Amino acid sequence: DSSEIVDIENYVKANQVRPNDDLFGIAKGKNVVLISLESTQSFVINEKINGKEITPFLNDLIKDSYYFPNFYHQTSQGKTSDAEFIVDNSLFGLPSGAVYFTHSQNEYKATPEILKDEGYYSASFHANNKSFWNRDIMYLTLGYDQYFSQRYYDITEENSVGWGLKDIDFFNQSADIMKDIPQPFYAKFITLTNHHPFKLSKEESYVDRYDSGDGTVDRFFPTVRYMDESIKIFFDRLKADGLYENSIFILYGDHYGISENHNDAMAKWLDREITPFETVQLQRVPFIVHIPGHKDTRVIDSVGGQIDVKPTILHLLGIETTNDIMFGTDLLAENRESYAVLRDGSYIMEDYLFTDSNCYDKATGEITDISNCEPYREKSRQHLQYSDQIIYGDLLRFLNKPENFKYQQ
Ligand code: GP9
Ligand code: MN
User: Which residues does the annotation say bind substrate (predicted)?
Assistant: First the structure.
């Protein structure tokens, strides 16, 4: 009932972290270009296959950005849609099923809705059927003004592979569409070529396949490389079209591409056994914040996750979040705790990692005394439980309609 939200609100307010004074509002009024990197895990960043970089463009971009090597995806069965949900709401997806399907009629206060009040227009660009993951319905709920789905793209057999339109064609056609959208905008681009089964012709591959003998893992490298190229082309287009300077760029990996079924091939790639500890570490996905013209760029090692993206973006745009119910904290805030909890209850601290009822020392990857993981045990349980309670009970409706809601009943 409505009293539940009071406890949660008190908890969230007591745990808020002050934004970074130097960075708050640094991108005020700028466009936001949000790019979902399909199935991209951090283990490909700054690595080579047969002497060639797997992500040359992202590797360069990182040098001119804030880059977070210890950023985790927090998705579950809702995959890409869970990532979208977490990023836009700073709430977790559900322990099973996809919140995009099961709770699309709830009240939320997602980033597009918040930005609408600041004069922003929001759109999502993705060349798949509009109802996939129930996006057409959920985007309306989340406050998107427009969904440029499959039917807005010219898709032929020639320019398609695997799940659909190839990323290079997707970004080229998206850039055409962008010439006509209002500014400032919050625009999300969901890539697709680097999706299982990672199909791509040899002629279009910029790097070799890996040679583990596990086809899924072997094909993953060329499709990641292809996606990297598509983003380079997109950036070049935005520069040519005069949109680059006026925008900030937020890139995130949506979820793992290589499941635990491929541990043997991954052990070969990493040259070590895939223990439960390594499995959690493999849930790291790239997170890059690129602000054109901004000179303070660095690698930020602290632990974070998709839940932290919303406050990070809003604070860069100079928007206060003190009245929002969020379970993440601004990744650029100075007093932020280095921490992330995954949907399965695993959690990662600065020096320790909890998974599968064991506490691991991150420096060695060895099991250590469980008491080392104790400090974040309750918090981890609480965050997931509160977030679920909000979604199952549609509790944000009590906050979004303050005129109908009395705190003291
Ligand atoms: C489909 C794309 C991929 O539209 O988002 O979905 P996934 O299987 O990764 O959730
Ligand atoms: Mn995906």
Answer: 195
